[in-house]
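ARCHIVE CARD
Drawer: 12
Card no.: 0347
Subject: one protein chain, sequence and derived structure
Cross-reference: see card 0346
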Amino acid sequence: MQVDRLSGGGLIDRAAPLPFSFDGEVFEGYEGDTLASALLANGVRLMGRSFKYHRPRGPLSAGPEEPNALVTVGGGAKADPNVRATIQELYAGLSAASQNRVGSLRFDLMAVNDLLHRFLGAGFYYKTFMWPAAFWEKLYEPLIRRAAGLGALSGMADPDDYEVAHAHCDLLVIGSGPAGLMAALTAGRAGRRVILSEEDFAFGGRLNAESFEVGGKPAALWAAEAAAELAALPNVRLMRRTAVFGVYDGAVYGALERNAGHLGAPPPGLPRMTMWKVHAPRAILASGAIERPIAFGNNDRPGIMLAGAVRAYVNRYAVLPGRRAVVFTACDDGWRTARDLRAAGAEVTVVDARPGTGRDEGFRTIRGGAVVDTVGRLGVSHVTLRHPGGTEDGASADLVAVSGGWSPALHLTCHLGGKPVWRDDIAAFVPGPALPPGMHVAGAARGDFTTLACLRGGAAEAAAALGLSPAEAPEAEDGAAGVAPFWHVKGGSRAFLDQQNDVTVKDVELAHREGFRAAEHMKRYTTLGMATDQGKTANIPALGIMAELTGRTIPETGTTTFRPPWTPVPIAAFAGRHKGKHFHPTRLTPSHDWAKANGADFVETGLWLRAQWFRRGAEKGWRDSVDREVVETRGGAGFCDVTTLGKIDVKGRDAGVFLDRLYRNTLSTLPVGRCRYGLMLREDGIVFDDGTAARLGEQHFLVTTTTAKAVQVFRHMEFARACLWPEMEVSLVSVTEQWAQYSLAGPEAREVLARILEPGTDLSNQSFPYLACGAATLRGGVPARLFRLSFSGELAWEIAVPARYGHGLAEALSKAGAVPYGVEALGVMRVEKGHPAGNELDGRTTAADLGLAALGAKKSTGFIGREMERREGLQAEGRPALVGLRPVDPSAKLLAGAHLLEPNAAPKTETSLGWVSSVAFSPALGASIGLAFLKGGMARKGERLRMWDGLRGADVAVEVVSPVFIDPEGARLRG
């Protein structure tokens, strides 16, 4: 039964009752309610427990600044913790549960912490858990981790979808109060593209919570009509349930839209939330202001609320939160709450902290007084009042409405480094002059606290932003908003500032005594402002108290740094659809479908899926397949899809000189129609990547990279072109996806290639020698490029065709007599030939370590990494260098990652001589072989060492050999 629902008024739909449950008990509310308003209407004030002391808590506010009424909505995998009941829209079947309790909400066993509050003050964990040291890992840390947090995640995969989207507009209006609506009307009527974002599910902002008139009609009605006019404009986009949470470079605003949080059964395909990236060259911040509480004894009990929130519950939701109300205020705004409460039928006492006299409005009034303390286990039932002379008396009260003034919600103005400035007349910070580019601030967000000033300011700021004439503002209240800076009542019991984290005035005083007086230090020592509400209601009173303690002004005390997000944003919203297999795109080679149809098993290599091996007949395991592919390739011809290698077109008059500065060896002297191996260094002299460069024209090079480093190398080259040498005439284009490329290798490669090329193509050594390149045409008129390159040690070509012909080329090579092989066989053959690859280019090795010191040794021009490569440590004798390894016992298995030791050395870090980087079983040699980095390098050729791996229990005698196991003279690849 809705015992505290008013019989009339409000913006709820009484014809649409909505059943819901809280902690298993079923209640009823109406469409237009929030969970908090519906619970209050049903007489439920207790909605949560505080973080540290587990004190009973009810809603403090009626909006997104709520620190107390946090609940878990839903169950199972769909459970959503830490939802603010004050903004959770009610829907039929909503199931909510209280959090942070052991036992029931009314009888929380962890409330024993409140009895120990003297030992749990600010920074207690820094002092309490110092001794004995052994207790930290076994006792203290587990206890702290178990107690940490409020709501709990389900631990199950989130079944909902999330979306990331982009929107563009001429003007983004943030907030739909009087200023925001007028700004949107000014721009919308002028035909500009407008996005109006509102975190609430109803447009109007504070107008929905007030009883005064705008334009001669109820404020909420005027707001609804303004929103309807905007909705009818084709150039205006209204985004309700959308909170702008951050301002970023490039005039980009982050916004979170709650698409399905108000629906019991969302339609299929509707994302739960959408994270918008709004591109807006101009923005109007009309985010309003946040009311400040006053700290006094036991000011955290259920039933103690902000005065503006009380008006919202009365006027918007038709809920009377209490019948015996005390309004404790330090500003004129509190009196507005007193009038609305009286009109709703409550008995009201007004305690105004400001001394002096005022007109008699018929209330019991104590001017210059204070609320000192409250009583009530699960909700306020009695208050202690202090009179100007210091005398105290009590009063029965089930509602205390508190107003210490309003603070502009200026956080977004500071996200790009802006600093707020203090205004004494409103006792609050306002936006400073350094606003984000294109941002204007209007209404209460800039310190204009009368409705008429907000209406006029919204229109004026939109007009200034877009060069328009402002829309005419309707008539509205324009009374002065007097306020006195009053932060806390001295004396009495614990007075809470940050109600979520249980930070009290005494905690701030302790921080002052212990030297944590800067705003940032106080925040971290006390944890004030570090909860989910980010101290929206607590920060200014805390700064005021610290200023009093230090004898400084609030501007001198300073503020903490405001960073995005302004409101909580689930991590899933940032990820959008990028989860599971969609975490990153899966890239398929042109031959993927052909390979899949021909028995390929695939492996992820970066973002690519590549054929790892091809199963045939009765092969029992991957080794059988790989060994066969190697044998058939070295005995006949095999082909492998190498499309995934990075391919970058480098063109321009300075292309050759540009590449000389990027690579260790010289490429500018390369003749047209020839290829050359290239080695690229980082700035610190360490090898970055390797590949080939082919000169296709006088001003046209095609360079290749490893698959893993394709993106990084391209970024590196772009940085060098744009930032290091912008004067060079050179252009770069990544063409990795434009060309399908296959390596065809083996003694019969020439014959196979001739079968797929146009008749008459000369592939002889005289016409097409090793390291040659050139254009060719496949049978059927398909254009192609040929590169006489080999990383297998066999006679080989790489054949490139436009990507759309990649599938057909795979079929043609197979029909011409070549067998497909995967990346495992490719790896075996490159180890047999001693070619370094990813395991060797691990970010620690130099050219000399890889046996490539002679590459570019006589180069006279500079290149990236040249000077740092000459550092003494990188030139030191005894650095681990590339060698080959064979087991003394051919049946023994080598392991990548194993250490190399002297035969009789104990396995210790200081006795390690190096490590094994790559291993493979060589079908040609009938044994396991490997590449390794060994101190002394090839000077130790012929020595016998131990390969030791304690983790895998391996201890194998090995012999140091040349890293080139097959055809060291290179006769095969030149054949």
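Annotation on reverse: The chain has 23 helices and 52 strands. The chain has a mean pLDDT of 94.
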